[in-house]
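Lab meeting minutes (informal)
Scribe: AK
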Amino acid sequence: MMTSLSRRCLLAATAALTLSFSGAASAAEPIRIGAVLSVTGPAAFLGDPEQKTLELYVKRINEAGGVLGRPLQLVVYDDGGDASKAKTFAQRLVEEDEVVAMVGGTSTGTTMAMIPVFEDAGIPFISLAGGIEIVEPVNPHVFKMPHTDRMACQKIFEDLKARGFTKLGLISGTGGFGASMRKQCTAVAPDYGITIVADETYGPKDTDVTPQLTKIRGSAAQAVLNADFGQGPAVVTRNYRQLGIDLPLYQSHGVASKQFIELAGEAANGARLPAAALLVADKLPDGDPQKKVLVDYKTAFENAFKQPVSTFGGHAYDGIMILKSAIERAGSTEPGAIRDAIEATKGFVGTAGVFNMTPEDHMGLDLSAFRMLEIKNGDWALAG
């Protein structure tokens, strides 16, 4: 049985088709695209802009004539951040909804639960989550849009090294993303001459982490990195300032949303993080190759929904537009042909960077796609 969100998305898509297509085109069989997102629950600040972006751009694509002369039909399910539900919805998309491709998977945990379903069905799956294990090792039908947690570690360590810091205190969440980033940071730290002198964790429901931060304060750390997403980093940041810790604080790209700043309040000021250029689109030089794409998406999203843009919605934009391009280049809606075309994506300018995929790289971004940002006066700024 369809969820209310799914039903609403289908009705919205149908309305858009009615308005946008006439004559022979209106009778064309829709191309069904699936999405399983965490629109509610602890990862809602990720899933909500993803859902809104997909609905907005499916509507815009259909108003422009669809793909291969056919309308897109978006089938969305809300997993609430539950990996078991995500897998069930993935099976429903394959067995009942008969989608030709999937754009979704808000978190690393829900994505990993769904991968076997789409791999077994031979249906291309474009994930919107950050964990590196989504694409390493490569699964033939699985792709991802965001930068990996390993890349986040590398970008942060580059900045630490440039600032002369070599001793790091690490505090991470125990969920899928936090655990994965902790593992990646620990693995690559020696490459940058970084020694992790304190290593603390916290659970997804913890509302106070002062004991862990107190241990870090008592260590030889010269800077602190919080590896996590969701509400945990806001708790860490507030506790960090309450304890008066006078060390540089770094966050992951998992907090690249205005909601993090709102949750953390003034305590967020001074925190640094690697993120897509979308958050500073209007601050980029006119010659930046991403600027037009970023400004156009930011304007469209904020005009439609009256809320600040986030990098997470941007990943959904990248996913749906890469999928659209792949279907057009394949000249087919056959899942295998779409998969091959996604893998052949070259020079696609998206919100996360310029994508160049290969059979060995199902993400297609390099470290230059990340920008180091600092939160100043409650807003994003390029770090000096």
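Next up, CB showed the second protein from the same session:
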Amino acid sequence: MLVHPEFSPIAFAIGPVAVRWYGLMYLLAFLFAWGLGRWRISHGKTSLTHRDLDDLLFYSVLGVVIGGRLGYVFFYKASYYLAHPLEIFEVWQGGMSFHGGLLGVLFVMAVFARSRGKRFLEIGDFVAPLVPLGLAAGRMGNFINGELWGRATTVSWGMIFPQAGDNIPRHPSQLYEFGAEGLLLFLLVWGFASKSRPIGQISAVFLMGYGVARFLVEYTREPDNFLGLLAAGFTMGQWLSIPMVVIGAIMFYLSRRSPHAVV
């Protein structure tokens, strides 16, 4: 049986300033996106420029942070934050939502596309392959922090998380998400984007791929104790992922009629 090593959440300190692993994972995520984006631009995979990429990533950081926080507030603990509104700004206490961050980035993409005279889905097809490795970095941050642990299990690789306050072996669901939502999704979307595709198809594959991966891994992840299981025995993460799969499937079907293809 494995035991989580209880890493210190602080990677290193410079004087009174402590740099946390989770913050480094966010930085790594955007570095991945920047590097992969520059590669796609340099290899003629988009009409965007390097300056477009820099501007898009700058505003996407705001979209991820603001959208991720508001998504957590409204999707997961709306009643609590309604009673304690000032705590919405206490982001250092934790509480971010991928689906909220996604909505924040979609808003940024829409504004960016309009300001640059680009199609929204063209921006989406450029951004989609850049995201999964960043998701992998975020899930590794979850694992290092010993948070968002899995459900109880009897599998041989079950891991005891002292942070859970019990001695129960659990699925290391953060690592499952690291593999499924991160590495496998990256291979899927990056490989799919390596060839010319109708506008919107790359975005559609990302939505469907993430939605399916998150939905399945949620069966091994411990539900939030303040929510538990919701209708049909699904978690909040599963309910938020279902629309991604549906929208992605519709987009993929409709995109087949589009004569416009990315390079």
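CB comment: Strands lie at 2-3, 10-14, 17-20, 159-160, 169-170.
No objections, moving on.
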